[in-house]
Amino acid sequence: MADPTYQPKVYRKRGGDEIVVASGGKITIEPGGAIDGYGPSPSPIYVVDALLGDDDTASSGHTYWEAAQLPYKTLQAAINASETARLAATSIYARPTIIIRSNGGYSGGAVGAYIMTATPQYTDVIGEGASPFGSGSGIVIIAGTAATVGTMRGNYFENICFEAPGAGTTYYGLFVTHLLRTRFYHCSFMGANTGAAAAEAGLYIAGDVGGVEIERCMLSSNLHTLLYGIKNLSGSFNDCLVKDNTIVAATVGVYINSPGRDGGTRIEANTISSGGWRADTPLETGVYVLGGENCAKVVGNYIIADDCINHTFPAECCVANHCIQGGVGAIEYVGT
């Protein structure tokens, strides 16, 4: 309650220990000014805005609550600053947050999309925009690259479209070397909206996968159907959850080539098929699992394919999948 004996709406109480902002008053921080102290979050929050941002370190690179500072213009500049701050902190696991604002544009082959050439670690990355499913204005898009963004650890991604920047088998929505302890929620992994050929995969992991959640995501394309939805080329695929996703592909929906081990992994309640708008070919295989030690469980999926499930241990690990295989429907594991 403001002290009625004072006329100003912003004043210092007697004794100087407290500043009061009465109704109608405000504190304005001009450019170059700041209020130091413990902010509202123990970890920094970075904002990326392609339309309003500035990568000049004299005017950007500051936390979300420093209102006088500009957001970053490019995603990679924010990632670099976030990683520098995280590694310099007392605990490297004190999670920064990066908020990416939509630039309002339609990608059209990742034109106007944000670029990530090196991944953050132990960071929450949130898209501030429209739903990433489909195409159109307002979606936060991170363009894929033909080269890996490196090994990804401990991240959380939400409401972001990872889109292949071109057509052909050297392009991916997201390409990582190893993928560890990371969660993707309500994201999309899309083929390019331009070009004459399909992208190789929505999500491509060259090596080990462990402790990963991919949930309520879409792996698809608005032009040529992806060859693979999720493709793990080699290594392990341990303790992962792939659940409640829509996967549209031409060759394999979920491809796990893990001669090492894939124990603790569950592929559950996904819809896997070819088709949709401008489908190129029928889906060849819904789920492919080459497992070594233990085996991934394939449970309760809806699959339309010529070969619905190709699994090293089908009888032991594939349960209650609704499969339409070669035009015949069945509720069973349907493994070969």
Give me some keywords for this one:
336 residues; mainly beta; 15-stranded mixed β-sheet; 10-stranded parallel β-sheet; 2 helices
Walk me through this protein's architecture.
The chain has 336 residues and is mainly beta. Helices cover 5% and strands 37% of the residues. It has helices at 75-88, 314-317, and strands at 10-12, 19-21, 45-48, 97-101, 114-115, 124-128, 141-143, 152-153, 156-158, 161-163, 172-176, 179-180, 183-185, 188-190, 201-205, 209-210, 213-215, 218-220, 226-232, 237-238, 241-243, 246-261, 266-268, 271-273, 285-293, 297-299, 302-305, 307-311, 318-319, 322-325, 328-331. The strands form 4 sheets. It has a 15-stranded mixed beta sheet that branches. It is elongated, with a radius of gyration of 24 Å. The model is unreliable at 106-111 (pLDDT under 50).
Chart the SSEs and their pairings.
Blueprint: E1 10-12, E2 19-21, E3 45-48, H1 75-88, E4 97-101, E5 114-115, E6 124-128, E7 141-143, E8 152-153, E9 156-158, E10 161-163, E11 172-176, E12 179-180, E13 183-185, E14 188-190, E15 201-205, E16 209-210, E17 213-215, E18 218-220, E19 226-232, E20 237-238, E21 241-243, E22 246-261, E23 266-268, E24 271-273, E25 285-293, E26 297-299, E27 302-305, E28 307-311, H2 314-317, E29 318-319, E30 322-325, E31 328-331
Parallel strand pairs: 3-4, 4-6, 5-7, 6-9, 7-10, 8-12, 9-13, 10-14, 11-15, 12-16, 13-17, 14-18, 15-19, 16-20, 17-21, 18-22, 19-22, 21-23, 22-24, 22-25, 23-26, 24-27, 25-28, 26-29, 27-30
Antiparallel strand pairs: 1-2, 30-31
